[in-house]
């Protein structure tokens, strides 16, 4: 619970957090805490099992993938190693990809984990099965996958 309460100051300190006057609101505290716990647990599993964990992460209706929540893994060069909801993105260098608002969110993911080890990033991204972008906040944390420095993340759509 204490960790959940500490999220808001972290969001304000991160360079990727948006100004208070913007329209995007961060996820509710209970959702933020849930996503952080999921990603941190998945990071531990990745460090133990490597890419062998991807099969479990991909299963719909599991504790790793439910509703609009899914895990993604990106190496620190911006190559997508895994994306449960969008496997067509795997193997692609998306470091400079821009969202509907022009934000290079993969670059922001890498910057957050390189600077702080973990943190939140907001961006526009379609919900699974949709094409129109929605506001999404993702929590990312540093990890290693089969010896490769990477990040793992999951997010919540807030609109």
Fill in the keyword field for this structure.
single chain, 159 residues, Beta-Lactamase, 5-stranded antiparallel β-sheet, 5 helices
Can you describe this structure in just a few lines?
The protein has 159 residues and is an alpha+beta fold. It contains five helices and five strands.
Structural category: alpha+beta
Task: Please give the share of residues in helix.
Answer: 25-40%
Instruction: Report the sheet-strand fraction.
Output: 25-35%
What composes the largest sheet?
5 strands, antiparallel
The name of the CATH architecture is 2-Layer Sandwich
Q: Using the coordinates above, name the CATH class.
A: Alpha Beta
User: What would you give as the CATH superfamily?
Assistant: PAS domain
Major β-sheet strand ordering: 2-1-5-4-3
User: How many angstroms separate the termini?
Assistant: 24 Å
């Amino acid at each position: 619970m204490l960790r959940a309460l500490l999220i808001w100051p972290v969001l304000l300190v991160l360079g990727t957090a948006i100004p208070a006057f913007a329209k995007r609101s961060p996820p509710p505290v209970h959702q933020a805490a849930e996503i952080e716990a999921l990603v941190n647990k998945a990071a531990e599993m990745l460090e133990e099992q490597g890419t062998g964990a991807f099969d479990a992460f991909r299963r719909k209706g599991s504790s790793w993938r439910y509703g609009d929540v899914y895990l993604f893994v990106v190496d620190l060069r911006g190559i997508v190693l895994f994306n449960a909801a969008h496997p067509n993105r795997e193997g692609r260098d998306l470091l400079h990809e821009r969202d509907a608002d022009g934000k290079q969110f993969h670059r922001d993911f890498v910057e957050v984990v390189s600077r702080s080890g973990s943190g939140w990033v907001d961006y526009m991204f379609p919900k699974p099965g949709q094409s129109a972008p929605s506001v999404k906040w993702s929590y990312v944390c540093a990890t290693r996958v089969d010896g490769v420095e990477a990040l793992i993340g999951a997010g919540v759509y807030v609109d």
